[in-house]
Amino acid sequence: MKSSNFCLLFIVAVLITLKTTQAKTPIIGIVSIYSESWDDYNSSEWNYIPRSYVRWLQSAGAKVVPIQWDLPFDQIDYLLDRLNGVVFTGGNIGVLKNNSPTPIYNAFRHITEYILRKNQHCNFYPLWGTCMGFWNIVRTIARNMSILTPCDDCIYVRRNVYPKQSYKSKMLRNLPQDLRKKMNQDRLSVFLHHGMIMPQVFQKSPRLRKYLTPVAYSYDVSGKQYVSMAESPRYPIYATQFHPEKPEFERNPQLDIPHSPDAIRFTRYLANFFVGEARKNHNVFPNSKSYLIENYCPVPLPSSVYSEVYFFPAYNSSEKELEGEVESRRK
């Protein structure tokens, strides 16, 4: 009897240790998108994640696991069940084909709905969307694919961000006052988008207003106001139209990316905020080592908007290659 009690106590101690370790070093998934057909990496055979997103999370103490968008949903769910948070990157993908949602958008929708359900059942599960990632969160929650308005002069520009004064944001609650002022004076952020989400999108959707609230606004060159930061008032879901990963981790001199000390302070603040939210999730990933991004080598892309990119063989391509190997062995 004493032996069985000792074993039970040992198992409980191990589980507590695993959860404590996990809380100190959260493991966050970044969802890949299909390649933009760089040399040797065409879109039908490769997916990618820019290294700057990985480094942004790692700078705040997180570990990163890639989530390939084209995996079967049960394999995606296997990862989601073990991760402490998820990030949707920016990028340029098609969400509609012949008026139907594309498979890649369905993957983003599946993940967003999974995380919403977890939070609705009192399982604290953070989600972050940057640029296109922001759009796909809004599309899913609003159940509306037509949320974008064309944006004038929004490709690699520095832009002021104006926090919503009447709303006490979780994202900005602990932002130093000097940085809060500089958000709308010193252009700490870089924008890279062809469309924008106008405030009217929120006003017209009761469901969207229930789950997501504008936190800050920006203006394009024609004076149109659009939402540049948003968060869920009830769940740990956050999004920005600008790119917080770029000021510190992208250094292309041809692009107008701010690298000032204040811009880097701001990007580090947001990284620390989101990773801090991930620490509140208690999922355990005991065999995470074989899934971590460190198992892959980033590829330098000096002529691209990204300095380095992680590439992953598309799931279907991997299956075809495996079938080809099996067939060749049979012969």
Describe it for me?
By secondary structure, the protein is α+β, with helices and mostly antiparallel strands. Strand 6 (96-97) and strand 7 (100-101) form a beta hairpin. Helix 3 runs parallel beside helix 4 and helix 4 (103-120) packs across helix 5 (132-142). Strands 4-1-5-8-16-15-14-11 form an eight-stranded mixed β-sheet, with helices on both faces. Strands 2-3-18-17 form a four-stranded antiparallel β-sheet. Strands 6-7 form a two-stranded antiparallel ribbon. The chain has a single domain (28-330), classed as Rossmann fold. Residues 9-22 and 318-331 have low confidence and may be disordered. It has eleven helices and 18 strands. The N and C termini lie far apart (60 Å).
CATH superfamily: Class I glutamine amidotransferase (GATase) domain
The CATH class designation is Alpha Beta
How far apart lie the N and C ends?
60 Å
CATH architecture: 3-Layer(aba) Sandwich
Helix-strand blueprint:
Blueprint: H1 2-24, E1 27-31, E2 33-34, E3 46-50, H2 51-58, E4 63-67, H3 73-80, E5 85-88, E6 96-97, E7 100-101, H4 103-120, E8 127-130, H5 132-142, E9 149-150, E10 155-159, E11 162-163, H6 177-183, E12 189-192, E13 195-196, H7 199-203, H8 206-211, E14 213-219, E15 225-231, E16 237-240, H9 246-249, H10 261-278, E17 299-300, E18 308-313, H11 315-330
Parallel strand pairs: 1-4, 1-5, 5-8, 8-16
Antiparallel strand pairs: 2-3, 3-18, 6-7, 9-13, 10-12, 11-14, 14-15, 15-16, 17-18
